[in-house]
Amino acid sequence: MPFEKILILDDEPIVCRxxxxxxxxxxxxxxxxxxxxxxxxxxxADHFDMLFMDLRLPDGDGTELLEKLSHQQDSPFIVVMTGYxxxxxxxxxxxxxxxxxxxxxxxxxxxxxxxxxxEQYHHILNVARxxxxxxxxxxxxxxxxxxxxxxxxxxxxxxxxxxxxxIQGESGTGKELIANEIHKQxxxxxxxxxxxxxAAISETLIESEFFGHEKGAFTGATARREGRFELADGGxxxxxxxxxxxxxxxxxxxxxxxxxxxxxxxxxxxxQVDVRVLAxxxxxxxxxxxxxxxxxxxxxRLNVFPIHNPALRERREDIPLLARAFVDKAGRKHGxxxxxxxxxxxxxxxxxxxPGNVRELQNMIERAVIMTGNDRLIEPLALGLSNxxxxxDAAPTVHSASHGTLILSDEIVPLEEIERACILNALRVxxxxxxxxxxxxxxxxxxxxxxxxxxxxxGVDVPESADGGGE
Length: 471
What we know:
single chain, about 475 residues, alpha/beta, Rossmann fold, Helicase, Ruva Protein, domain 3, 4 domains, five-stranded parallel beta sheet, 20 helices, about 15% strand, elongated
């Protein structure tokens, strides 16, 4: 992103005026100072992206300030300007953290080149810091079933366009892998690919994560911070589980999608970005729009090119390929060399219903590899499955009592069904008060709201009283 604020520290009025005029023509906010003391006061009161600094000043040597700033986080990029250049001076300034060293008199083009290099370096540095904190996972889409073949065909069609893509599918199907592949095949492949997990960030912080914040914007904002949209400038941003953001933030997001503009939290400078947006959701957004949980205009703006990622049960022919790939991956990760999967294990995998989709399969295989150990075949017991449990016609029987409670027989009942019964029963006991029900169940209110939405989307009858007050 372009810099915004630049400070000039020089006791020569003509240098200050000339440089200030050039920078303001480029729409930078510029402040000037003639002394070290004044410059320190200005820097303490506000954030500056860049500092052009003379070395010989009325109240001291510029290297004193350079050394102080080198120990501070989020200090500006410092460019030393001097008419008394020496090799020793240049080496010392660079050692203390100066970004560049310019000899007076200098030309306008020298200043412009220096600023452009600093802006590019600043952007690369921030993106690198972001990726250093990210958990980089495998990005290969595994499978040759017709369902996955259709997905790959859609990726090839849309990747090299600038279209916004909405990737829909159940949890655990690997929607983020589709987004990764779109970016890899796009014209932006060499630019940043920034991911935001909307479900994992609290509502109070997600706006700052999206758009960044200014120093002092809220308690704890001790320095200016660039948001994910700034980091993704020139590249692609993935809004993972987009349905989890609030209606207020949806309106601000719509503006970014339409105008490519936003302001940081606590700021009043409008920033312009060039970002391609990909979004994922495990919800039926049409029903969310009907309920008023999701803005209709934002839905249509996101749904330019929809891609549906099939559930694992819809592409069972890919299970052997996926399983073998996960065995190899888990073996490398944990230093375990199993011989592979037994025939009985593969039959169990093919017969299982996979409510957790590919993620469930991967976790099951990883656990089985650890349980099996070296030079042995993975058997059904290590998977936690058996042939009887995996047969579709051997599904467990659940006896439902009144008010959503369960009477368990000797047969195995899926945890998902037990969980649903417990939640519906808690809502009944609490008279539909979701806050009380969530507290009684020991779960977050947001989690309970999401469960209620899921149940309604799948046709489960949830009491209307659950939409009442109490939140």
